[in-house]
Please model this.
Amino acid sequence: MPPPIPTFSQLSQPHHTLIKTPLFTIKSNNNNTINIKPINPSLLTTHSSSLTNSSIKQSTNNLIDFKDKTTRFRLKNLLRSITSLSSSKNKTHILEQILEKDDTIFQIQTISDFNHLLMALVIAQEPELFQTIFTKLPSFHLVPDCCTYSIMIRCHCEKNDVDEAKRLLFTVLENGFEPDAATITVLINSLCKRGKVKKAMEVFGFMERKGLKLGVQAYNCLLKGFCYVGRVEEAVEILMKMKERNLGLVGVLGVDIYSYSAVMNGLCKVGRSDEAMRLFNEAIEIGLIPNVVIFNALIQGYSREGRPVEGVGVLKMMKEHGCVPDCISYSTVLHGLLKWDEIVGALWVYKEMVEIGFEVDLRMVGTLVRRLCKKSWREKCLLEDAYEVFEKMKEKGLVVGKRTMEVMVEAYCRGKKFDEALVSLNDMVRWGYSLEAICFEKGIRGLCRQGRVDEAVSSLVLLHANGGILDRNCFEVLVNELNALGRVFCGSVLFGLALKQGVVLVRDKDVQADKRC
Model:
């Protein structure tokens, strides 16, 4: 029986450790090419002519061990050389020429050496080069082993040719090789990511007929695949079967926290958050430790269902289980509370985010300010909170939206903070926002009540100078106030400006006469 294919985790290990004596040498010349030298064919004549199934199986001992420093050094240098090839030239043509030369200094002596080259091409995301180099394998008098086929399966998955990867896996199994579960998991994961759950199930069925068992990671990929295509009920059934049996993993639970996470996320997406919470409690009962992904899925589920307050409860539950909420956790809760108009709760979450040091999305902060202002018309205690949030936006140099500015001007006027209202109006002009007369009207009326008529007139001039549409109410308030103060000339100037703008004013005397009539 041939040894197993190296695991996917081995194939994806980092390869940054260097040593001084590599097994082979790589050299890039001025043309940015890689020099590769095959071994002398005469040295392999006897070996190649007597290859049998047993010899193929023995060749699987040349596996890629990513824990080995030499292996990591080889791959790092190969990867560097491959990626340094000039993009202006045809890389496939260059490597074909290199392989045909006899004076190159890079020697491929074993199938293990060849596998290193293939793996470097996969890591460099060069599937076309991979196919070209693989066709040159017979010229080196080498026979592909289990590791070679494993790398080929991964290459097909990388280039989105999962059907060919599946066919290759079945061929390998039929020919007596037994690839390990991690290699098959790569294929199952690729199939499920593309919604090909039926074909993923065919792989499971084929493995069962061969008497081979897969680990929990492969089943987790399948769970995600079923949830991805909306077949949540089947995912729940598979999860229950996983829980009932051990899956052949010695000393390991048949399910892990990622199994529950996949199904819970699927349930939350289809509006079944209560069922997801029951699964959460079940996972806790069997001793699994929840992670932030599970809690975030619950928060998103409750938010979608219009139950954002329960999302706040999940946020508190995270702390009870020793799981630190991240920025996504808080942002999701805040978004749900704002969406369903739970402003007080949203304010609490916002303040906690600021205290922790998380950055809050600008749009959500603007929404919070506007909602606080509107709610403060009924609950005046929230007005100070609106001022505070707005000032923090300006302190951080954030660009405040036009609608937010308009609402804040009104809020300042309602709170009799006319100086702040004037500052905001000037900010709107400075930022190039089109001005609305309704914003100025409230400020003008407030300033007039405080006897600050000159500042009120300046506001009207500011509106006019920046292309704002002058409103009759603004003119009437100012003209009447100026006349009441005995400043008839100023009032007449404004009256004339109004007529020039096509605005017909109604004087106080006319209004009183109409009432007597």
In short: The longest strand covers residues 37-38.
